[in-house]
Amino acid sequence: MKILADVDTGIDDACALLQLCGCPDVELVGVTTTSGNTTAQQAALNTLAVLDVAGFPGVEVAVGTPRPLRRPLATTPETHGPGGIGYAALADLTSRLGRRPWLELWREALTSHPGEVTLLVTGPLTNLAVALEEIPDLPDLVSGIVIMGGCFWHLGNTTPTAEWNTWCDPDAAKRVFAHFEGLEESQLPVLCATEMTERIEYTPVLLDTLLARCGAAPAGLHPDRPRVDAPQAATGKPVLDLLSDALRFYFEFHHDHDQGYVAHLHDLFAAQVATGRARVQTVATVVDVEAASDLLRGTMVRDDRGIWGRRPTARVVVDNHPAEVFEEFARALATLTGVEAHLP
């Protein structure tokens, strides 16, 4: 299958990219970036570095919309590190960054393969909102759309009621979901909100298990490990070093915010949904986003009872299976490191 990814490459986006690269039956037809976890420019450089380490240097990467539709630019270095990938040491691949406009990449990918490309969006919906205006038949051209973002019954991770992606660009999110109202259910975007993605709670034990299955020594990460001058990972396999160093920062961030020494891999789950590797249940419902109020900026609402009398605008994921997600991620990394034959 063909995937066009739109990312704001921080740590969980990097895991999503590794998942896509580790799927032998997936063709990554391009990656575009938006500002969110980091700037669109830095996200593109991070993406190039992740793809290079994974062995996919030929995938085209384009810098997308540099800021939200009408809000000031905001990023989260405290969550993903100053460069966006935690403690991972990334090569500077600025010279490889393509100059083709991101929208041209989208248009070519979708029109060259009508009905074959699944669009995966793991950052704010800025690019998708713009593309729906510039490519009006986009819902007819894609095979499907998978979005990571928002929350309903779950506490917000940015404000009491809002998740980062929808808070970052609420105007884009509101515009995107409104665009799909009245379309066939099969054309509605699949939405992976934090009710589901925060169940994908990665731990040092899971990381060490993955490393062992890929033929590397355990990282042995734990909350008491010194942070200052801590050595970089040295597994002997660059892709595993990147993963370990990125996750170490993410574990520390969650620990510092009283969530435990864990990492919520939101975008990894969305990538598995996009590739059909995650078993999920969805419900078609009306989804809308608050974009006018400062108090409730980015708050996402769903109307399962039909009170508004509107047609569904999304298919919301309402069930998933975290253990299977972790197993699939281990298989993807085993493929990337050439040891898939060792897996049961």
Give a written overview of the molecule:
The chain is α/β, with parallel strands linked by helices and 344 residues long. 37% of the residues lie in helices and 16% in strands. It contains 13 helices and 11 strands. Strand 2 (27-33), helix 2 (40-54) and strand 3 (61-63) form a beta-alpha-beta unit. The longest helix is centred in the last third of the chain and has 19 residues, at 238-256. The radius of gyration is 19 Å and the shape is globular. The mean pLDDT is 96.
Can you summarize the main beta sheet? Answer: 9 strands, mixed
Residue share in β-strands? 15-25%
Helix fraction?
Answer: 25-40%
Quaternary assembly:
single chain
Which strand order spans the largest sheet, edge to edge or round the barrel?
Answer: 3-2-1-4-5-6-11-9-10
What's the total number of strands? Answer: 11
Could you tell me how far the N terminus lies from the C terminus, measured between alpha carbons in angstroms? 25 Å
Structural class: alpha/beta
Query: How many distinct helices?
Result: 13
Question: Rounded to an integer, what's the Rg over CA atoms?
Answer: 19 Å
Summarize the entry for a quick read.
The chain has 344 residues and is α/β, with parallel strands linked by helices. It contains 13 helices and eleven strands.
Features:
alpha/beta; nine-stranded mixed beta sheet; globular
Topology readout:
Blueprint: E1 2-7, H1 11-21, E2 27-33, H2 40-54, E3 61-63, H3 77-80, H4 102-112, E4 117-121, H5 126-134, H6 138-141, E5 142-148, H7 164-168, H8 170-179, E6 190-192, H9 194-197, E7 201-202, H10 204-213, H11 238-256, E8 263-264, H12 266-274, E9 281-289, E10 300-303, E11 314-319, H13 322-336
Parallel strand pairs: 1-2, 1-4, 2-3, 4-5, 5-6, 6-11
Antiparallel strand pairs: 7-8, 9-10, 9-11
Helix pairs in contact: 1-2, 1-11, 1-12, 1-13, 5-8, 10-13
